[in-house]
Amino acid sequence: xTRTHPITARVWPLGVALIxxxxxxxxxxxxxxxxxxxMMILAIFxxxxxxxxxxxxxxxxxxxxxxxxAAYATAxxxxxxxxxxxxxxxxxxxxxxxxxxxxxxxxxLRTHGIYFIMVTLAFAQMAYFVFHDMPFAxxxxxxxxxxxxxxxxxxxTLLDLGEPRTFYYVALGCxxxxxxxxxxxxxxxxxxxxxxxxxxxxxxxxxxxxxYPYKLAAFTLAGALAGIAGFLHAxxxxxxxxxxxxxxxxxxxxxxxxxxxxxxxxxxVLGAFLFVLLKELFQSEALFGAFARHWQLPLGLTxxxxxxxxxxxxxxxxxxxRRARAPVPHAG
Amino acid sequence: MDFAVFLVQCLNAVQYGLLLFLVxxxxxxxxxxxxxxxxxxxxxxxxxxxxxxxxxxxVAAHFGGGFFTELAIGLALSVAFGYLLEWGFFSYLYERExxxxxxxxxxxxxxxxxxxxxxxxxxxxxxxxPAWLAGSVQLGHVMTYPVYRLFMSGxxxxxxxxxYAIIARTRLGMAIRAGASNREMVxxxxxxxxxxxxIVFAAGVALAVFAGMIAAPVSSVYPGMGNQVLIISFVVVVxxxxxxxxxxLLASLLVGFADTxxxxxxxxxxxxxxxxxxxxxxxxxxxxxxxxx
Amino acid sequence: xxxxxxxxxxxxxxxxGGLTAVDRVSLSLARGEVHAVIGTNGAGKSTLVNVxxxxxxxxxxxxxxxxxxxxxxxxxxxxxAGVGRSYQRTTIFPRSTVFENCRLxxxxxxxxxxxxxxAAARCPDSTRLAHQAIEHSGLxxxxxRVAGTLSHGxxxxxxxxxxxxxxxxxxLLDEPLAGMGPEETERMLSLLTGLKRGHAxxxxxxxxDAVFRIADHITVMVNGAVIASGEPDAIRCNAAVxxxxxxxxxxxxxxxxxx
Lengths: 332, 293, 259
Prior knowledge:
CATH architecture of the largest domain in chain C: 3-Layer(aba) Sandwich
Structural class of chain B: mainly alpha
CATH topology of chain B: ABC transporter involved in vitamin B12 uptake, BtuC
Strand content of chain B: under 5%
CATH class of the largest domain in chain C: Alpha Beta
Largest sheet of chain C: 6 strands, mixed
Oligomer: heterotrimer
Number of domains of chain B: 1
CATH topology of the largest domain in chain C: Rossmann fold
Strand order of the largest sheet of chain B: 1-2
Number of strands of chain B: 2
Strand order of the largest sheet of chain C: 6-7-8-3-9-10
Largest sheet of chain B: 2 strands, antiparallel
Distance between the termini of chain B: 41 Å
Strand content of chain C: 15-25%
CATH superfamily of the largest domain in chain C: P-loop containing nucleotide triphosphate hydrolases
Radius of gyration of chain C: 18 Å
Distance between the termini of chain C: 34 Å
Order of helices and strands of chain C: EEEHEEHEHHHEHEHEEHH
């Protein structure tokens, strides 16, 4: 509910970004297309977490669980003999993930604050062990996706996700859909209630809001949206392994959020692009030689520096600079 | 399961639980008193284990061996390290919101992991227990039990009692307990709150490092050992309640038993049993078993 | 007039470990009345308000709302049944406008955790309630100002407005006059007098002048227990109250030492 820029100032960068993304496959090579795909999938993942952290104020350190559950569901539910139907597979995966989020959320939301952070981390670790230890999931080797889904109506194939271009545009379509959904949510009664809960949950309860159902709904929706990202990830790589549920993934997506800026929708998208770029940079042997092995060191330092110096992320930098140059006395 | 096996597993459970207690009590002290959630706490445990590995030959060369010398040096180093870390890093986290604390300490984990990788490498190492603790003790007719594990439990009990004595009986302990509930009041009583925080933090670090040092001969020294212990410590704190040392002790033992017997009875579910326990307790008592408030 | 009694507390107690914050307090709030609760700092007034509002559960005793036993009801349910409360420390949402604050509060009656698409602006009921609340609290001119930019007195008015936006029958007001200058106090007092007609009002306050001006009934608490309860004139003359609380003079913006 903040007013930082008028609508037009916000829309045109989005428009430019969208046009760039649409045009990209025609100009970029396969490596770069894959990179942008990774960014888009991470952007969807980060947007789903923004709903939890930025909108509702629920800091979850276990969001990778839903990304991973969806990815595994995609690999496990898809039939091995033929190409699965997109129209069946995607909803099925999202529903399965949403149910998992409902169950985990119902338990986790019985806690608050610091406990909630710890509990979500613990549940994600539990999910990791389920997929790592139990034989049905292929253990630490993971599972392959045998065929990529297609969307066919009456025998005519409309979309074949095995086609790289098609897959790219489907992923871009998902990103736009998730973005639009969250924008709509922000204007809705539900979204306003979540913002109130984030600002002062006690006050909301005093006004008569039962806050638990709202938080649970937000948690479940966030899980389901993360599921879309997981689904796309499984198709992109054709392969899933337990490492996608590792808590480092939960940390990475949180970092993406704070890098770009919490509290906006542009933030997570921008953060995703920056994070993937940074990771490529730090892992680049061309730049760092043998030291590129230790890419987590500059990453860790970046996290610390970013949180310490840019708590509102890149999106918040203009405001931060403006405030630094002309400090405004706070009213009241 | 016959009685001797059962006894051995009970002893293992107690030993694991007590070790967890050391780590978890450091975590709960740091959060309860300083208000900082510290994800890097597991890294201190890992540092302790690697210290045990690195110090053993050094102490052998310069002091002719001596397990307690090694522990003493390790403790001294960890206290100094904790002091400096609080002064240089953690003191900036106090007034920040949880998300920022979580992320900054997460960044710290990555830094510690990579520094360890650069300085000591990624290999798994074994650490031999000192010769005089290396034997086994007879339990009944057939089973034997390693003396070192008994020593571990004993050491943890000693530390726990020491912790209790300090917190319940000394002026420092009183300041700590008061500082947990009311910072301004403690300050106005003339206690230097910054110094108090530094001491508490250093103590928390020392607890984790000590736990890592004594655990090394049993668990080996390997990358990633800190993360696993961290998450289990979180489960302990959730079950036992933040700020409650008594809660941490009971929860640690509960987790120790659940994990040990779970491993023995249902090996396929070994890793997740502890989390199922946590989920069950959340269903029943979301504030933890002993939440102080 | 038992029909008009909207909220009744019977022998309500609240203990925190060994400390008794509220000790068997009974009082009733009737429509059309301002019932003030006064007492020294630490007398348990805020705890009492918390128990009546449902924020904390009592250790003993019962709370009845219009005849129904609501002792075990959690706060949101009680709020929807008609118990509104304002806080001693201002708890408005500073980044939204006055209107948005009230509309959000009003939305509590139309909860749909699964309705993710209805725009907040399109909810006619919340909008209507919000406008009414803003009118009643005298903030109509500031309706579209960002709440964080209001003056302190206006923020306290907004605090009341948010209370009103939920269409309560009972108002539990915790020190609404805190930190206000004389002009703002006047405005708030006339606002409260105007609200008397349709509501039962519990007023916790330290400002004795204000209390004696608008209260129809006063309850005095010391150390968690009620030491006197009655009409203002009776309280003024009550010896126990005088020695425990009012001291020698009636000017007690700063309460005397606890008895």
